Amino acid sequence: MTEPGPHEAANQYERPNQPWVCGLAAAGHACAAGPTARGRCPTLAECSPKRDSGRWQCNRSALRGGPCDEGPTPEGRCGRVQKCRPVRSLRARRRLFVATCAIAALGSIAILLCGNWREHALRPGALAQQHAQILENADGKSASCGACHPAATQNVTGWVVSLVATDNSLPTQSQLCMNCHAKSIAKDLSLRAHNLPLRTLEQLKSGRQNAVPAAADTVNSQAVSAGSVRPVSAELSDVPVTPSRDDSAMYADAAKPIACAACHREHHGAKADLTAIADDACQACHQQRYRSFSADHPDFGTWPYVRRSPIAFNHASHRGKHFVEKKQAFDCRVCHVTDSSGAVARTLSYETACASCHDEKIATSIGRGVAMFTLPIMDREALKMGGYDIGTWPAAATGDFDGRLPATMKLLLLGDPAGAAAISKLGAAFEFQDVDPKNKEQLAAAASLGAAIRSLLADIGSRGAMAVRERLSASLGRDVTKAKAATLTAGLSLDTLRGAAEWVGPTIKTNSTTPPAVKLAKTSLPYGPTGTWSRDETTFTIRYQPAVHADPVLTAWIELLASTPHLEQRPIALAMFKELTKLTAPGLCATCHSIEQTGADTMVVNWRATSNVQSQRGFTKFTHEPHLVLPQLNDCASCHAVEDAAIAVTAYADNDPRHFVGDFKPITKRQCAECHTHTAAGDSCQSCHNYHVEAVESWHVAAPQSSDKQPPAQLRISDRGWRIGNRNHASAGGGDAPAR
Amino acid sequence: MVRSFWKRRIRNSGLLMVALALVWLWVRTRERNLQPVAHETGYIMIAAVFFLALYNIRKKVPFLPLGTSSTWLQWHLYVGLGSIGVFALHTGWHWPTGIFETSLFALYASTMLSGLFGLYWTRTIPGQLARVGDEVTFERIPALRRRMQWQANETVIESVAASGTTTLADFYSAQMYGFFRLPRGVKYFLRPTTSRRKSLLADMQHLQRYLSEPERKACEKLFALVRRKDELDFHGARQGLLKYWLFVHIGLTYALVLAASLHGLMATAFGGGL
Amino acid sequence: MPELEIAIPRPQRWDEPFGRMTDGDVNYLLKIEPFCRIDARTFPPTLPLRGILQGDTRIVRYEPGDLIVREGDYGHSAFLVLAGTVRVALERLSPKLLGRAERPRRTWRQAIAQLWHNSRLPEVRRRAEIKPAANGASIRHDPAEGTPRVFVQDVPQLLSTTGTARLGTGEIFGELAAMTRTPRTATVLAEGKATLLEIRWQGLRDLMRRTPAIRTHVERLYRENSLRAHLRETELLRDLPGPQLDTVVAATQFESYGNFDWYADFGAQRRREAAEQIAAEPLIAAEGDRPTGLFLIRSGFARVSQRYGHGHRTLAYIGKGHVFGLAEMAAMFDGNGDVAWQNSLRAIGYVDVLKIPADVVLQQVFPNCKLQNVKCKMQTGDKEDQSAIRNPQSVIAVGDTAAPLDSSLLDFLADHRFLNGTQTMLIDLERCTRCDDCVRACATTHDNNPRFVRQGPTHHQVMIANACMHCVDPVCMIGCPTGAIARDTDVGTVRIDDHTCIGCSTCANSCPYDAIRMVEIREPSGAIYIDEATQLPILKATKCDYCTGQLTGPACQAACPHDALVRIDMGKVEQVSAWLGR
Q1: Does A633 touch chain B (CB under 8 A)?
Q2: Residue A312, helix vs strand vs coil
Q3: What ranges do the domains of chain B cover?
Q4: Is the pTM of the predicted complex or chain greater than 0.95?
């Protein structure tokens, strides 16, 4: 073993940058030449011995340590030829290590991108359960990510290209969302704020601004309690707002499309709530900043009572008067029961809840039945004087003009041009006793009406429902279906009609040879069972005996007219509708069942206590069940305090459901804010508000390509007020009550 | 030259805090306005990563007047620390679940962690090295170790020759030969202690009573050699740590840059749009 | 398989002559003064007089107004006026007038090209770089010949406004700077057309060594020409009226202490005990003795020490231009008769001092200068306390020291003679992570060859690395036979011209700081060059060139990530202490 060189003797530069180090360096014998550039040992002698006077002399340079002790070999070779295996320097090893790391990373990435499990590996996190099914169901290689990401159909090159150039042939991500969600959100409105057309948003805005003066303060609620009527514009501004700093900016924002992903952030795990939205997100557009619900959220105004209830039920009078009279306790929960899931049912059925008191009155209004056809008393003398002959007319029905045609009959007469002309001459609400015999025109009209009645009876008597259908189709200007026509005269036998036809004319020839049904009819009871028709030979009237409640024939007649578009353009038909729905009309239907104008220029009669628009999503949501858990809220009146001063009649005076005076005191924000704080029941916007609303009218269907330009005939956002009660159909049965 | 490191530390930390606060405010404002932020913080993040990696490139071109390495390191450190904040904003404090994303997260975290460890080591170890033993160049340590081993061997052999007894030689071959021959193990590399030296010296002290005069003299020499060898080992371990952590840090950096690029590419390509 | 070794003729002195001297030129020189009086037989055959004249001199012709030497430049040659007259400016000329030009720097392209042009192997030299082509076809000379000559525009105007001395035929100038390795003390320009013989200092040295006449002539010249200028540099004497200054010049004693070749045995001396080292240093003034005069340091360094315990503690070190003994003189001037040297002054290595005798100081200097100003300057921060004068401890410091260094560090610096450095590489071991970035940066900027070793004497946490300090007094240059090692004339960076270096190792052996390393050079293929004749490897001296020409300044300092490495002028102690106290 030789002594390693002293480290000072290695009087050389340290060369940490060189890739190779002499293998003998560790032993302290590094050779001067060092490894070659390729890391080989040059195996170089340390000197070239010189021959000096016959002897070989070591010629090692001083830098290499001077002449060595051993000296050259006898052959004159240097004995110190070092051979080593050069080693990589620290630096070179680092370079190697780093290169290995880089190549390993590159390789892993390449495998990742090319391998079969690319999608699995590149997926940036589990999808929410609802969306995860897309991946599970996907069979194709790229179909799964491609369901949401257009880029998934491309390869890496495509991705790189997409950095610089956008490929317009690919759908956008939101468009892909709509592949599945088109059912709940209109495709063309999917990127709009609240999925509403810009025009609608602007109308919302103007509605708000108009409403501001009236609704911005508590004066409004006082006005409500004083019985004044809210303006129609309040429809859109039941929540009073102070003007926000920059409403125009907000609507500028609304004009911008917003991607689904702006709020619905995916890949945060199966349990992630995709619909959880921070309040800040709402306030991106709604720039009026709310520190908290209790601090500066506006009061509710009249909410939730934004429209009258479909059934004109006066809670105040029932509690204060009727129940007292009947010596019954007025308990909300008797009528508003909860079902097994805890949801509050609106009301019990009429039979259960109302019949015991109201049957009697309705029955009285019906009396011996509702006259459907009747012969007026004609002044044959006067007619004769005027030169008109009414032909056969029962003597008992002649005399001074008298009698009143039932609305149903008038409607059928309208189907006859002559009858229509006569009725329009005489006025929709005419009675025969008003006919002035001296007036020639009236006389002529009466005469022609008489002829029309004759022909009507004959017509119906021979063709029945068919004739009804034709005549009504003509008089209402729309096609009345066969079924409908059948309902209108359900249970009315042709015989009854033929008998009536005989009053005014010769026996109608029929195929039947049966004896006249007159006799049969004559023997019928004056008060038939419900649903029966009877012919009263003494008054020349065909009556219908309806059921006390929910009679199909009467409802069919009312419904027929209500559903006729633009009824207001047919004054006579409209008058007939009013007659059928006046408060004293037989059956008293309209006393309780309110009539509303709908957007499609028809009317709706609210036969049921719950509105059929209830399942629409509005801006506000509320669920009773979680609230009812609290004992102090179990008494309905703790929130819904009956307003004793309410005058119900005015609420149902016209056909606008929002034109009303509520019979409950408005619910104040303070009540809610007692629990709905940040720390208690939660006060996020989402607790009560929906972002995605459903518009009642399908305006986007009406003009799909330019929905913004064509305004709907009448704006109507689904009725917020009627969202109360039951949960949304979509979440029915689920346990996601919004209360926190 | 008149500047205190503390002054610089406080100034730079202050600037970093301000910069982070600005980024945070910006992100929050964007978030409130429902504007996308993931991409924006991502751009910042990838710019930061590339900038951090650029320091390695800068070191390869010392002949270009691109600012001093010290300035670069300051930026490297503070941008690196700042990137933690941006990273937090970018990930939204979510732990990723995807395989690739988790790898990226892990790569960033380990790169950052190795950097933090490195920072700690580069700030603490130099002082330890300056206090312990002679300054030695890392590359020369094996040669020095070899030399010490040789000196120890020679000392013992001479003592045997001089005294004719092998008490010291036996002890040397049993206890000290390995100590002189080899560097220390991994444990010492990570956490150097003086326990081995202490126990060896104590044993040698104990051995003194059995030694002849020449052996005792040799033992004195060995005392010194043991001390020097221990110091050399200390230098080897600590300097090695200072060098080898960079292996990890830079190795991870390249992997991180690649993975981050892919992530950025995919985020841009897959990112929703409208 | 490429050759492993390649034999070439060994470079020799005068391989690359100083100028293109023809035999006729040499013959002409040998006929004129002073060469005609030199006995050529005193020169050994290996170093003939003709050879010196042929290889170490050149004849340069100047146009009127041409600058010959500039004040402040480092030069390596003396000049002999052969014909015409030259003017020596006695006053300082503005640098602008002297036309100091920017040094050429690498372009970005050249800098970047280092990435791929750098050799992969250590110490690679191309063949063309080793051996100059025959007949001097590609002679590379002192930059003066290759670059456009600087000339002064309006010479008559300059001469009329500036005090000058005229030098005529046969006179020598520039010998001081050439021989003492100090910057030029005055500017010299050609008055009319002038022909000068420029003598490389190696040649002058050899001439002086062999010819006593020339030696005494040169020494006399110094007394006459430079002493006055030197004295004027001292703040105390700057405003002294002319007659008094003349008295001072006449009375000034020229003293040298220590060994001119101190570096030769420095290695051995450094290994001695510290106390012995100090004791061995020649004493210039002994603490406790009666002050004999004022000492001005002309060149070299001196240690100011005070007795402490059984030894001497270094209080400061002083160098060129510094004055020792002012406080004691002032105390004597104030009438205190019992003044003694408060400190000792010792030569570190070799010191030239100018001693102005005490009586001259007291009678000629102090009454005629603004003593109060000097005093105030001496008592930094303690203007009121007159006792500071009597107790000179407080005034002993180097230069305008703001924060004096720790005494042990001063000892360390003085012991190792590190005071010499103007670009000393200091490494703070408390911050240095031993990452070798400095070494690699150095290598990258020098064709993949490091030019310093990150090792060196250490004091506490300060390491002085084995990197060229670009000394105030570069002793490495002393023995160089070819002038390959030289100072850049403007900034004083000591550089080795690789082409001229013959690998004699003299500079490396002279350098007391191990800053110069001899390396074996090789071809780009990797073959090591060896001498044809001796079969020994061809060596080259290499060292730090302070990254001259690089765009970055010293790459080592720029590459240190941890602010651990600094290049610092040890003469500016306030910088050192500021750096230490970061």
Answers
A1: no
A2: coil
A3: 2-94, 138-241
A4: no
